[in-house]
Amino acid sequence: IRAIQYNGVACIGKVVITTYGMLWRHRDELTRFLVGGMLILDESHYIKNPKAYTTQAAWNMGSVTKYKYIL
């Protein structure tokens, strides 16, 4: 499997590996990229505040993906 760099984020197929900071900064591009793909979020305590921008970005991305895993 070969990773592709997309705005500094490693992308493999429809899976994106990134940080929570990058999740917020590139939310629009990543949301479009993830349509029908998979979203895996580690350390879910980073998205527990529903008013936080990072949490909102994660929820928006999760709404367009086929698979979601929050650890």
Written overview of the protein:
- By secondary structure, the protein is α+β, with helices and mostly antiparallel strands.
- The chain has helices spanning 20-25, 27-34, 53-64, and strands at 4-6, 9-12, 15-17, 38-41, 67-70.
- The strands form two sheets. Strands 1-2-3 form a three-stranded antiparallel β-sheet, with no helix packed on it. A two-stranded parallel sheet has the order 4-5.
- Strand 2 (9-12) and strand 3 form a beta hairpin.
- The longest helix is centred in the C-terminal third of the chain and has 12 residues, at 53-64.
What would the keywords be for this entry?
71 residues; alpha+beta; three-stranded antiparallel β-sheet; two-stranded parallel sheet
In short:
It is built from 3 helices and 5 strands, in the order E-E-E-H-H-E-H-E.
Tell me the structural class.
Answer: alpha+beta
Count of alpha/pi helices = 3
Which residues sit in consecutive blocks of at least 5 with pLDDT less than 50?
none
Order of helices and strands: EEEHHEHE
Radius of gyration: 11 Å
* Anisotropy-based shape: globular
Straight-line distance between termini: 24 Å
Number of extended strands: 5
Arithmetic mean pLDDT = 82
Task: Give the % helix.
Answer: 25-40%
- Strands of the biggest beta sheet: in what spatial order? 1-2-3
Please describe the biggest sheet, giving its number of strands, its sense, and whether it closes into a barrel.
Answer: 3 strands, antiparallel
- Sheet-strand content, in percent, reads 25-35%
